[in-house]
Design a protein that fits this description.
The chain has 214 residues and is an alpha/beta fold. It is built from ten helices and eight strands. β4, α4 and β5 form a beta-alpha-beta unit. The structure holds glyceraldehyde-3-phosphate. Involved in the gluconeogenesis. Catalyzes stereospecifically the conversion of dihydroxyacetone phosphate (DHAP) to D-glyceraldehyde-3-phosphate (G3P). It catalyses: D-glyceraldehyde 3-phosphate = dihydroxyacetone phosphate.
Length: 214
């Protein structure tokens, strides 16, 4: 299972969480990546943890003030990026161009989607992975695997029907090891989570609790 920890814009210490994620990943043999604010990418990557961008813009070098250039994301040490997070929605054409930008520099890609129908649509763009996240469950602590497990199994089927090489992750409300095991049992190959770690009093303990049952 791949565990992608999105720090969003939470008031957490990205380096403390990156250090914890690196150590827990090493200790438990689970692939854990951290996606901090773009301005924190270098500091997070310097810890040695797998580092992801929260977004890349659908642009090349040029007059694109305020953009998140894929080349700058890799220069900062990231090896992957999310695109189309529910809190950073993109038009389909921009998701496609964002994937082109990520591919140009060799970033791994996860495209987020609200539901299984959207999973099928974005799987057609051949990202490395899609992450299904019902927006209404984000930040609630109620995992999609409990609230509506069919969303995960339907997302897996939708991606498989389009492109068997696209992995499916699930997210929203995931905070415990039990949630990770449930996601795996529903066919997900990874999880995307945020508040369960970024808002935890002890992020390292939260990460250990997540991966221990795997
Ligand atoms: O990027 C992470 C997802 O939006 C899930 O957030 P959450 O774990 O706080 O529900």
């Amino acid at each position: 299972m791949f565990v992608l920890v999105n720090l969003k814009a939470y008031p957490c210490d990205p380096v403390e969480i990156a250090d914890a994620a690196r150590d827990v990943s090493d200790d438990y043999g689970v692939d854990i990546a951290v996606a901090p604010q773009t301005a924190h990418l270098s500091r997070v990557a310097d810890t040695g943890v797998e580092t992801w961008g929260q977004h890349v813009s659908p642009v090349e070098h040029g007059s694109h003030t305020g953009s998140t250039l894929a080349e700058a994301v890799t220069d900062a040490g990231a090896t992957g990026t999310m695109i189309n997070h529910s809190e950073c929605r993109q038009k389909l054409a921009d998701i496609d161009a964002g994937l082109d930008a990520a591919e140009r520099v060799g970033l791994d890609t996860t495209v987020c989607a609200n539901n299984p129908e959207q999973v099928g649509a974005v799987a057609a763009l051949s990202p490395d992975a899609v992450a299904v996240e019902p927006p209404e469950l984000i930040g609630t602590g109620t995992p999609v695997s409990k609230a509506d497990p069919d969303i995960v199994t339907d997302a897996v089927a939708a991606a498989e029907a389009v492109d068997e090489d696209v992995s499916v992750y699930c997210g929203a409300g995931i905070s415990t090891g039990e949630d990770l095991v449930a996601a795996r049992n529903l066919g997900a190959e990874g999880v995307l989570l945020a508040s369960g770690v970024a808002k935890a009093d002890d992020p390292k303990a939260a990460l250990e609790n997540l991966v221990e049952p795997l």
